[in-house]
């Protein structure tokens, strides 16, 4: 009998706009549940892939950040070393400038002494010429007075 009723149910024609049978509603509901489950699995799969990709991106970003931090530390160390060299060079320049100023003072003092010595030399030469002239006059006077020669 059931066979007969299922055969007759299959032979029933449906007109457009007529309500579906309970069996069809059940099949549609089950199909919708399977479709929803498939969609959920697909969403979960995509979610897992997205999470893995995000994790990979985060790990790469952390590695890049670590590398950048290391480079920053290296550059800061280089900067400190360079600044130390600059400070040392500045100290040497200041010391050289002080030594140059001392040498300029010594040269100036030597030049002043040289001018003084040149002046004294000129005065001594003038006095020597005067002395020679006086000696020549004395000799001439001696010759004239004592020897009667002229």
Describe this protein's structure.
With 150 residues, the protein is mainly α. The protein has a domain at 21-122. It has 2 helices and no strands. It has helices spanning 2-10, 22-147. It is rod-shaped.
Mean pLDDT: 87
User: What multimeric state do the chains show?
Assistant: single chain
Content of β-strand:
under 5%
| Number of H- or I-type helical stretches | 2
Cα Rg: 61 Å
Helical content band: over 70%
Number of strands: 0
Q: What about the largest sheet?
A: none
Cα(first) to Cα(last) distance is: 191 Å
Q: Kindly name the structural category.
A: mainly alpha
- Uncertain spans: 5-9
Q: Could you provide a short overview of the structure?
A:
90% of the residues lie in helices and 0% in strands. It is mainly alpha-helical.
Please give a handful of descriptors for the protein shown:
mainly alpha, 0% strand, 150 residues
How are the elements arranged and paired?
Layout: H1 2-10, H2 22-147
């Amino acid at each position: 009998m059931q066979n007969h009723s299922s055969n007759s149910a299959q032979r029933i024609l449906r007109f457009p706009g007529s309500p579906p049978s309970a069996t069809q509603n059940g099949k549609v509901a089950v199909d919708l549940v399977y479709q929803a489950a498939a969609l959920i699995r697909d969403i979960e799969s995509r979610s897992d892939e997205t999470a893995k990709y995000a994790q990979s991106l985060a790990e790469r970003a952390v590695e890049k950040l670590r590398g950048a931090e290391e480079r920053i530390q290296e550059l800061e160390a280089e900067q400190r070393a360079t600044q130390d060299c600059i400070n040392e060079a500045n100290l040497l320049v200041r010391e050289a400038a002080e030594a140059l100023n001392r040498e300029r003072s010594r040269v100036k003092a030597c030049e002043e002494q040289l001018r003084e010595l040149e002046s004294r030399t000129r005065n001594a030469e003038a006095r020597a010429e005067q002395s020679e002239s006086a000696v020549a006059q004395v000799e001439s006077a001696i010759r004239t007075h004592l020897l009667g020669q002229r």
